[in-house]
Queue: 2 jobs
Job 1
Amino acid sequence: MTSPGHLDTTFSALADPTRRAILARLAMGEASVNELAEPFDMSQPAISKHLRVLERAGLISRSRDAQRRPCRIEAGPLAEANKWLERYRQIWEANFQRLDALLEEMKAERKTPYKNNVRTTKQRNTRRHDR
Amino acid sequence: MKNVGKMILDAPGDREIVMTRVFDAPRQLVFDAYTKPELLQRWLTGRPDHTMPICEVDLRVGGAYRYVWRGPDGMEMTSRGVFREVVVPERVVVTERFEPTWYEGEAVNTTTFVEQGGKTTVTLTMQCASKEVRDGILKCGMERGVAFSFDQLEEMLASLPEFTASKVRA
C-alpha cells in the first residue's frame, strides 16, 4: 500500500511534460541517458535531473551495471496513480450520471407540466414564454 | 450524439483545468440543474455515501453560494464563493474556496452552457487569479490528479500491458 505522500511524489513527477515523454519512451523499452536526451533537444545534465526526479518517485529504476546504466519504467507507482485517477473520475462520472437521470426527469415533467398541478392561465403563459 | 456522456478532462495551460461534458437535454434544463439548490442536491453529491445537506445559491452578480457535503463519518466539506457573472442560461462565473481547503487561495470557475441540436455542452474552466494561487492549485491539482492531461496519462498507461488489462476491467 502506497502512502498518500508517495502519491504526491508520483503526481509531482508526472506533472512535467518532459518527464511524461520520458516515461512514454521508456514504456517501449529501456534506454540510456544519451538515448533519452536525443529526441528532447536537451542537455544530458538536464535529462539526468528529470531522471533523478523520476527515480526518487520510484517511477523508473537504473541498473547499476556498466557505464550505460539503462533506465527502465517501474509499474507500481503508476498503478497507484492510475487507481487514484480512476477514483476521481468515478466521482465525477457518478455526479454526471445522476445529473443525466435528473435531466430525463425534468424533460418528462416539461412535456406534461400540468398533470399534477393546477396552474392559472397567467402562469402557463409565463412558463411557455421562457422556454 | 457521439460525445454525449463522455467526460473530457484536460489541463491546457499552467493556470487552467478544463472539464467538458455533453448532456442530452436543452440548455435551460441543464442550467437549472446547475444553479437551483433543490436540483444540485440531487446530483452534485460526489461519493455514493455522501450527501449535500446544505445548498444555498443566490444567483446574481455579487450573490453568494455555499455547498456543504457530509460523509458517513459526519465529516463535512464546504465549498463557497460569489457570483461574478450570471448570464442565464449561458454562462456563470464564480469564485471558489474549499473548507477544509485543498488548494491555496481562491479559484475562479467559469461554466458555459452551449446548446446544439437539443444537446448541451457544459464546459467548466477552473482558473486561479495570481501566481501564488496558481501554484497552490497546481500543487493540489497534482495531488488530485487533475493538473495534467488525463488523456496523456491514460495514453501512456495504455502503452503498458499491465494497465491495458485493468482498463478493460474498468
Job 2
Amino acid sequence: MGSQTLPKSDETPRRTSGAGRTWWESSYYGVIGFIDSGFSRLQKLIGIKGMAYVFVLPNLLIFGIFILLPMLLNFAYAFTGGNRLLLQNRPAVGTQNIEQLFQCEDLLDYTSCREDKFIRAIGNTTWFVTSQVTLMVGVSLITSLLLNRQIAGRAFFRSVFFYPVLLSPIVVALLWSWILRENGIINAWLVGVGLERIPFLTTNFWARTWVVLISVWSQMGFYTLILLAGLQAIPSDLYEAADIDGASNWNKFWSLTLPLLMPTMLVVLVLSLIRAVQVFDIVFAFTDGGPGTATLFIVQYIYDVGFTTSQRLGIAASASLVMASVLIVFTLAQIGLRARSGEL
Amino acid sequence: MTAVRQFLFRTQGEDRLSAGDIATYLYLLIGTFVMFGPVIWLIFSSFKPESELNRFPPRLLPYTQSTIELPGYDDPLPLWEVTREDGSIDIVAEVARFSVQYQMVDPDNPSMEPETVLLNNLERVEEVRFSLENYAEGVISFNFLRYLWNSIFVTVVATLLTLLVNSMAAFSLSKYKYEGRNVFFLIMISTLMVPLSVILVPAFLVVNSVGWYDSLIGVIVPAIATPTGVFLLRQYMLTIPDELLDAARIDGASEWRIYAQVILPLSAPALAVLTIFSVMWRWNDFLWPLIVLSDSNNYTLQVGLNAFRGEQETQFHLILAMTVLTLLPITLVFAFLQKYITTGIATTGMK
C-alpha cells in the first residue's frame, strides 16, 4: 500500500510520448495529465487501495442519492398517509395504503374495488405483458431466423427493422395515431376494399390491440438484433455434422437451433418482460389510458395518482412497491434460470 | 444484368431461388414496408395543407391548388378548371368569391372584366408541391432550435458523464480487491431491473430538495449511475489481463493513468456499446424530463413535442410537421452510423 514510487506529476510515462498525435489525442493526454497531478498526490496519501474507493465513489454516490435513497423513501411513503409532501409532516398509517389498494369485494371484478383503477391497471398490465411479450418474442425470432439465412442485403434489412427502435415513444405514438385516425390511411384502405371505417382509438378492443402492435413495432428490432447475434454464435460445423447425419431443416431447427438459442431467448424474454411491465410513455401519448380505462397501465396509474390533481403520494408509493416486488420476482427468476442453465 | 442476377441468386450456393428464399424476401419486403411505410406516410402528410389533410380518402402525395401571379393583383390567384355548357374546359383564375359564386378572370387576358361562375362547374387545378408552410408556422410556437439544443445538451453531457462515472466504477470493481467490493456490486446489480419509473415520487422529491427542479442538470445527473453500464463495462474489463496493470505500475504510472491510458483504450468496444445505449436512452427519455422540467425554455424535444401536441389539439398540419422535425436528427445520425450501431448492439450488446 503506497509503497510504490510514483512519478513526479509533470512526468508523462514513456508510452504516451511521441510525435504524430492528433489534436484530440494531445488534449485528451493534457486533461489526463492535469487530473493526474492531483490524483497522484492523493494516491500518495491513501495508497492504491484507497484509489479503488475513489474510483467507485462518484458512481456510488449518485447511485445512493438518486436511486437507493428514493427506494428507501418510497418504502417510508408507502406507510404514511395524508396529502402533505414532506415525510416529517405525514402521519404513519401502517399498511393501510396497501390494504386500501387491494380492498375489494371481489378481486376479479375491478368495479367492486375501492381503488378500482389500480386493480384495473394491474389487470390491463398483466394482459398487455402476456400478449406483447408473446408477440414480441415470436416476431423477433422469425425475423432473426430469416435474417440469418444467406440472403442479399442482410445489413440493409437488419437496419430497416432496427430503425423504429430509435424513434422516441412520443413520435411513435403521434405517428400511429395519425395513421389510425378516423380519416386515416388504414380506414381509407378499409373503405377502399368495401368495409366500414373503424374508430380504432375510441373502441376498447382496438385501442388495446393497437397499443400492443405499435409497441412491438417500435421495439422488435432490438430483440431481433440480439437473437441474430445468438444465432450467429452457433458454430456452423454443427449444422454440417447434422447434414452428414441427414437431418431435415425442421430437425435442425428443433434439435439444434432452438436449444442452442435458449440462453439468448431467455435474455430477450426477461428484457422484454421487464420493459413491458414498465410500459408508459408510448401509451401516455397514444391513448392516455383511454378509452375510459381500457389502456390504463400500472406506471401511468402511479403517475396519475402521484403527480396529477389528487397527489396521493402514499397510494402512489404503495403501488410502486407492488410493482417493484413483481420486477424483483422476474429478476430473481432470471438469475435462477441462468444459474440452472450454467449448471447444465 | 448478370451481376444483378448473381447478386440476387447468391443463395444457398445454388443457382436458383428456392421457395424458402422467395418467402424470406417476401417477408423482408413486407417488413420493410411496415417499418418504413408509416414514417414515409408521416413525412408526405407533413407537407400537405390543412384542407388536403382533412380529405378522405387521403392521397399519398401532397397536392395543393395551383396559383398564378397576374398583373393588377397583389396575391397569387388560385387556378380552377371550369366546365362550359358545351362541355369544353377552360382554365380560369379566382379573383373573389361570394358563397358559391366565383369571380374569375382569364389568365391570358387578365385585364378583361371578371365573369361569374358557379362552384359546381368548377374543379381545382392541383399540383404536387412540398410546401414548407406547415414547418414555418409550426416553429413559431414550437421552439425547435431551443428544444433541439436542450436535447443535444442532455444527451451529450449525460452520455459523457455516464461513460466516465460507470467506467471508473467498473474499473474499481473489476481490478481491485477490497472490503465492500462485492456488496457495492450486488447492490447495484440488484437494482438493474428496477427503473426510475418505479421510484418516481421519491426520486422527484430528492431532486427537488437538491434544488434541481426545472433544470437540465436535474434531468441529467440522477440517471447517470446506470447499473447496466457498470455491469457491461465490468464484465468487459474482467477480460483485460492484470499483468498489463502491473507492467504499467512498474513503469511508474499512477492508478489514474492506468485507468485513463490503459484500461479505457482497451475497453473501447464496450464503451462504444454503452455510448449507443446511453444516447438512445437519453434522446428518447420522456417521463423523467416531463416531471422535472416545467419552464418551456428547458424542454427537451420529446417533452416539447408532447406539450405542442397538447396546445394545438386539432391543428394536425402543425403537429405532423413538428413530429417530422423531431424524428429528423436521430434519423440522420442513424443513416450515417447504422452499420456501427447495429453491429455494436449485436456483438457486445447483451451478455
